[in-house]
Amino acid sequence: MSAIGIPADPAGPPGAAGLGPAGGAQALTERAQRRAGRRWYRQPALMAGIVILVIVVGMALAAPLLTPYNPITQDLNASLLGPSTHHWLGTDQLGRDTFTRLLYGLRLDLRIAFLAVLFPFVLGTVLGSLAGYFGGWPDTVIMRVADIVVAFPFYVLIIALVFVLGLGERSIYIAITAVGWVAYARIIRGEILVAKRQDYVTAARSGGLSNMRIMRRHLLPNVITQAFIYGMSDIVQDILAIVTLGYLGLGIPPPTADLGSMINDGQNFLSTHWQLTTIPGLAVVIVGLGLSLVGDGLADLLRPGQ
Predict the structure, then answer these.
(1) Domain count, the chain
(2) Which residue segment(s) compose the domain that 55 sits in?
(3) Is residue 175 part of a domain?
(4) Which pLDDT tens digit goes with each residue over 225-248?
(5) Of the candidates 146, 152, 156, the residue with the CA atom closest to the CA atom of residue 183
(6) What pLDDT does residue 108 have?
(7) Residue 123, number of CB atoms within 10 A of its CB
(8) Are 301 and 34 in contact (CB under 8 A)?
(9) Dihedral angle at the C-alpha atoms of 18, 20, 24, 27, nearest 10 degrees?
(10) C-alpha to C-alpha distance for 270 and 266, rounded to whole angstroms
(11) Cα 57 versus chain centre, distance
(12) What CATH number does the domain containing 177 carry?
């Protein structure tokens, strides 16, 4: 018997009929998002990271309820006490409760880290979109500036900028934003260079849509995923930068509780009161582990073809 050819359905996949290239791509994206939403809880790495972060962030937010002490109040008569029912992790050299300072230090460092990721994320996304979509001289200028920034080691440039700008949260935000936007700009630029040649973008241009609307409504929703996944690992890098600045005395001014300054203050008593340095260090490791697991889980969940 001769094979009978069956013509392909010109309407494409169900739900995309009559929508054209842009509608079909949007329908496929929506179905992929629905499938991802149904299976996110089946990702072991993602679930483990979420559990860790919920516990850590919950304890940091509930610090006033978990401890009756003030993180900056000194009591020299109770200095360097060991762990007890009154002071679960003992006290430091100034009589301040270590557990209390740990919770408030976590709260401060996490808040700074999340905001310090948001600013370069927004700036890098905007600059990367402009460079990738328009090309020409905007692309050349933005990428040459990015090359200059990445010519210096990340932590060295952060430390140098904070040293020049002075202590405080504002200096940390400015320094991390001035250095961290480059990675987001390169990611978004590379994704848009590929996406802007797709049929749905061509259809949007043919429909008379403005460049800004095409980038905002059609390109960014399809390319922002990779930048978001990178942001989860970037938070870990920012937390390490914040702790490093605090350890060097360039972060948050004392007596505000900060994990980096706690590690620095406790290192002189490491042989007798190891918890003063070790516990804040472990807190940094646990937070970094939770964020890394969430980033890996999101990468597996949102990887094309899954």
Answers:
(1) 1
(2) 41-74+87-287
(3) yes
(4) 889 889 988 999 999 999 999 999
(5) 146
(6) 94
(7) 17
(8) no
(9) -60
(10) 6
(11) 15
(12) 1.10.3720.10
